[in-house]
Structure formats: structure tokens, C-alpha cells
Prior knowledge:
Blueprint: H1 6-11, H2 18-24, E1 37-38, H3 41-49, E2 58-62, H4 68-75, E3 80-85, H5 91-100, E4 105-109, E5 136-140, H6 144-160, E6 171-177, H7 178-185, H8 195-201, E7 204-212, E8 217-218, E9 225-232, H9 242-253, H10 260-264, H11 273-284, H12 297-313, H13 322-350
Helix pairs in contact: 3-4, 7-8, 9-12, 11-12
Amino acid sequence: MAVPGKVAAFRLPPLPTVGEIIKLFRLKAQKQLSQNFLLDLRLTDKIVRQAGKLKNAYVCEVGPGPGGITRSILSAGVEQLLLIEKDARFIPGLQMLSEAAPGKVHIVHGDILTYKMEKAFPKHLKKNWEDEPPDIHIIGNLPFSVSTPLIIKWLENVSKKDGPFSYGRMQMTLTFQKEVAERLTANPGGKQYSRLSIMSQHLCTVENCFVIPGQAFVPKPEVDVAVVHFTPLVQPKIQQPFELVEKVVRSVFQFRRKYCFRGIETLFPESGRLKRTEQLMMTADVDPTLRPFQLSMSHFRNLCNTYRKMCDEDPGLFVYSYREELRQKKTTRNLLKSTSQPKQTEEENQL
């Protein structure tokens, strides 16, 4: 009986190279989709190694493109590989890889932002959240345009233990622009410390593995790329609903250079804003003169816990939107201007 993975590893060498696949199917990276191809199999192997032991594992690769990372995953001896590719031009090349690894590859032509992964893998692979991560991995060289909204979506899935994470604490190995990767892993006080740092680190162990220089990609992007590994935590560092944490963190960081008091006060309606902001900061034991990038994870935890209590006491508070209040004010001002102008014109006409 053949060892799982050996067939794929044995049959892959005779295939055309990734570069030849690109020429064969006349593939060209589309700038509007922020596509960049990685042709060096030494680098794709290095990316796949960051995912850990993949022998007999189940893997979902996001945006495989011409199939460079796909080859490295198959060579690692996986049991099953799910490929989710939005661009139909890449499907024929991926089908060649599928034929080289019979029964191992399943190709889905679709958008990862809308694809339902809850039923993508066998039920027996599911693990309890408190257990070790399941033998399922997400790997992907993500287009820059989709990387941030996608990781936010998956972090929300981690928080709610749904979507891909209905199988347990599934690990992810993904590429990002170097600057985004630095935000994901930044510490308090750092230049890149941001909303993304809190949202990712309160839910996952996040590791910035290594940097790939831009010239390794075709076409060469204007920035370098970093590989980041995520492992969901058993217990989040802030044990509040994802939407509440995101609202608090987003409010704090919207005035990054000002005292944190300025951002926090936008959580409250204009009526009683100052008093409630002082109440929140005093109860949470946060110095109002700290800048947002100086706040630690424990500061954010205290702010979220206190804000949750205030929302429980005033159910209408959580749905309040500072931006909506500003928009309504602007609409009212414009309305007053438009209604007062004709009266002045009429009076002038009468005179």
C-alpha cells in the first residue's frame, strides 16, 4: 500500500515548471487584482515549512495562481488539498497538478471572501477548541487588495469559532505586505502598533516568520512581502464579542496622534459625552493622556470590559455611531442653509 503523499511527490517532477505554465497558458498578473507570482520553489518550500508538519494533513490553499506553493504543499505529503481560486485563467494549470496527484486535489473556482468552509473537510477532523489544533491548515500567497479584509473576516470567525474554525483552532500561514505584517505583530509603543495589532494578538499567537524581497515576485511589487503564521488562542485575551472589541479599538486608534481620551469619547453621544468618557477611563484605570499606541493589551481589555458594562446598563449605547451623528449634523446644517437662502432671495426680489 502506497504511503499517502508519495504519489504526488513522485509524479510532480515531470511537470512543466511554474514559469513554463505561465507561458503555456499565457498568464499575466493583473494589476487591478494585485497579483504577484512566486516562481522560486525554494521560497515556496520555505513558506510551506512554516505551516509545520503537513504529512497526511488537510490543507486549504487560498489563491494558488499558477501553482508554485501548490507544488510545495503536495511535495510535503498532504492527504487532501483544497484550492480556492477566483481567477478562471489559472484553473487549467491547476488541473494539470490535480492530474499529477490523483485523488488529492479539489479545485474550487470561487471567491474566498464568500466561500463557505464549514463543510470543506471531513467531520472526523473536528477537534474541541481546548484541544490541540486540528490537522487542517490554511496557506496562501494573498493578493494585497484582499489580505487585510480577509484576515479581519477570519479573526471574526476565530472569535465566534465558526467558518473554517468550526473545525477547531486551525492554523494559518499567509503572506502580507511587509508593513501589514509588522502591524499584525507590533508591540505597544512601536511605530506600527495599530488596530490590526490588537485585533489579531488578542485572538491568536502571531509570528512574523520571514521577509521575501519584492524582486522574488513576478511582476516585482513596490514593497517586500512577509510570511505570517497564526495559531488561535484557547482563551482570547479580551473576552468580549468581536464587534464590541473592534468598535472600542477602532475608536481609540482613529485619532492616533492625540491623547487616547479623544478617540474614546467618540464611543458616546454628544449629550453627556465628557462625563461618560471620564467614567469609562477612571473605571478602566487608563491614563487619558496616553497616546493610542502606548496602550497595552490589558488597557484595551479593561476598556472593553467597562464599556460592555455601560452598554448593558444602556442598551442603546452600543448601536450609537459617532460618524452617523456627524453626518446627521452636516445634513441638518445643509438643510438650514438651503431653506434660508430662498427666503433671502425673495426678500431681495421684493425690495
